[in-house]
């Protein structure tokens, strides 16, 4: 036996209340248990147990030592459980919520291969642009874009995200290319309706500046704004995952790139627990692999 086994013997004797009961549970003889205790006390140079023919009780030194022994054994159990879960096949219901546009464009294509790889997971995907309360609404995981609000949730960064000001080459040829954010006042800007949704944020000489550009076209759907930009109606400020294919194909051109805000990202968030379940861990790793080659 090693020193961890000694701790197990001590805790078992205390919990069982007798050497014979502890010996039976440990599969040892009572004399072997007594010998282990004597050797441990001799090594430590102090009495841990006050033993009589009728009862066993911890000494003051033994009580403190036993408390630490329990903590050590609990930590060992936790480490072993965590390692076991790494090799455990993901299974069970997995409820995931995500923003509509990102879910449709980037996550939806990744769901069938995940389900094929992990057929024992029952996957439910919910697409909504509202902030879902994971615990209250029974969700295991959320994908969130932009800046994360302070919360008790655990966050895993999936990929960077930038909001790009873009326009079609035709529009820029007709109207010119803005060189700084104030130049937007002379352009048609394609915006979302309603309050702060119309705000465009820029980083100018290390300071954040908020503008509310105007134009003749608004839509409450980002994909509609993307179509309007490709069609030459004006400038749109859209997340890079929406326009990255258009940028590669030359249908859209980025402008004001030196003023882009760079502290936003796409995260997977989940409630803080002692162990991350295999189904959550596997889904996050699947997203990381699937999104890595799409990050602009």
From TrEMBL:
Residues 1-59 form the HTH lysR-type domain. CDD domains: PBP2_CrgA_like (cd08422). It comes from the Bacteria. The lineage of its organism: Bacteria, Pseudomonadati, Pseudomonadota, Alphaproteobacteria, Rhodospirillales. Keywords: DNA-binding, Transcription, Transcription regulation. This is LysR family transcriptional regulator. Belongs to the LysR transcriptional regulatory family. Coiled coil: none annotated. Signal peptide: none annotated. It comes from Azospirillum oleiclasticum. PROSITE patterns: HTH_LYSR (PS50931).
């Amino acid at each position: 036996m090693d020193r961890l086994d000694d701790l197990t013997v001590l805790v078992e004797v205390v919990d069982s209340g007798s050497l014979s009961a502890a010996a039976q549970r440990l599969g040892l003889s009572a004399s072997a248990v007594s010998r282990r205790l004597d050797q441990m006390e001799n090594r430590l140079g102090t009495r841990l147990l006050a033993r009589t023919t009728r009862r066993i009780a911890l000494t003051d030194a033994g009580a403190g030592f036993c408390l630490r022994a329990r903590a050590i054994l609990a930590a060992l159990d936790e480490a072993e459980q965590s390692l076991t879960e790494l090799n455990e096949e993901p299974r069970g219901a997995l409820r995931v919520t995500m923003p509509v546009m990102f879910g449709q464009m980037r996550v939806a294509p990744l769901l069938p291969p995940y389900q094929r790889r992990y057929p024992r997971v029952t996957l439910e995907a919910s697409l909504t642009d509202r902030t879902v309360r994971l615990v209250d609404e029974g969700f295991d995981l959320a994908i969130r874009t932009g800046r994360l609000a302070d919360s008790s949730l655990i966050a895993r960064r999936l990929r960077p995200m930038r909001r790009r000001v873009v326009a079609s080459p035709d529009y820029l040829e007709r109207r010119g290319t803005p060189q700084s954010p104030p130049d937007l006042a002379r352009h048609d800007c394609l915006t979302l309706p309603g309050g702060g949704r119309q705000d465009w944020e820029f980083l100018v000489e290390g300071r954040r500046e908020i503008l509310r550009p105007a134009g003749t076209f608004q839509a409450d759907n980002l994909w509609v704004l993307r179509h309007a930009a490709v069609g030459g109606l004006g400038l749109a400020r859209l997340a890079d995952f929406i326009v990255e294919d258009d940028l590669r194909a030359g249908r859209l051109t980025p402008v004001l790139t030196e003023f882009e805000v760079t502290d936003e990202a796409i995260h997977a968030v989940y409630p803080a627990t002692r162990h991350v379940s295999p189904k959550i861990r596997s889904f996050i790793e699947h997203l990381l692999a699937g999104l890595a080659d799409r990050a602009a």
